[in-house]
Known about the structure:
- This protein is an alpha/beta fold.
- About 20% of the residues lie in helices and about 30% in strands.
- It is flat and about 110 Å long.
Amino acid sequence: MQSGFATTLGDLANHVGGELVGDASLLLSGIADVDHARHGDVVFVESERVLPQAENGEASAVLLPPALSSRKPFVRTGTPRLAFARAMELFAPPRPQCSGIHPSATVGKGVTLGDGVWIGPQAVLGDNVTIGARARIGPQCYVGDRASVGDDSQIHPGVYLYHDVRVGKRVIIHSGTVLGADGFGYIKEMSPPYKVPQLGTVEVEDDVELGANVMVDRATLGVTRIGAGSKIDNLVQIAHNVQVGRNCLICAQTGISGSTVLEDSIILGGQVGVGDHLTIGQGTVVGAQGGVISDLAPGSFVSGYPAGPHREKMKVEAAIKRVPDLLRTIRQLMQRVEELDAELGTLREERDG
């Protein structure tokens, strides 16, 4: 990607905190993957397998991990993925920073707006809403009564924040996400099931990112909370009264049932299901499509359904793949036993006759 921005290799090395090898004055105009690099681009190479392709391509410079070198000018760093992300930030096209309220927006009574706020077309702000400084509320967003959005947060088009929802600072919420819809609470003994009022709220702490079409239900009483620094992928369902800790990563199509507690730094792979009223210990990793039905100790690495220790699950999977061969062998052995039994019967008849 070439954005019109240009920098030198030396400046790039300083920006990402890496070791420069080569001409510091080399001019760079973009960043790209090795398959699409052009002259003026810097590329990221994480493994030795890809290095020849980068060296034979048009890229002008390379970002490398500590163990690699290149005949092209390069920047080497102990945190290559982080360096790549920071380099991408450097070359990212600047977004227009406008402020004000679009004429088609609707703003309720008693609304408080910080400096530099932007309210987009057809956005709706209810009564007594608070929007922090430099926050951006995109087109067709809804922010309900008494809800708040912190400084420097970005609410993309079509996001719905129900009444009393609280969003912290530097939060990013992508389109289609709904915070504060009623939790799924019913008394099933009644016919039809009797709805339990959902009187709590949702709180999203600082530096959280929520992907597209994430649903976070309000608490029955109290708060459904997303902890600071956590990142949640598209199409995730978080039920009422769930407590997500700090710096968690939750991948797409995961569902977390009501009143479950995720402690800090947990990773849930894609399509994970977590039962209700559980505690998932700090630093736990649940593999894709894992089904968690009991508490997990801190530092667990589990997968499968029901979720269990990943190493054991892999042994079970390997054993399952051998079952057809084992069944075939058993059938052959049974057939051989029948043949031997028949032969033995014949020998007995001959002996007795």
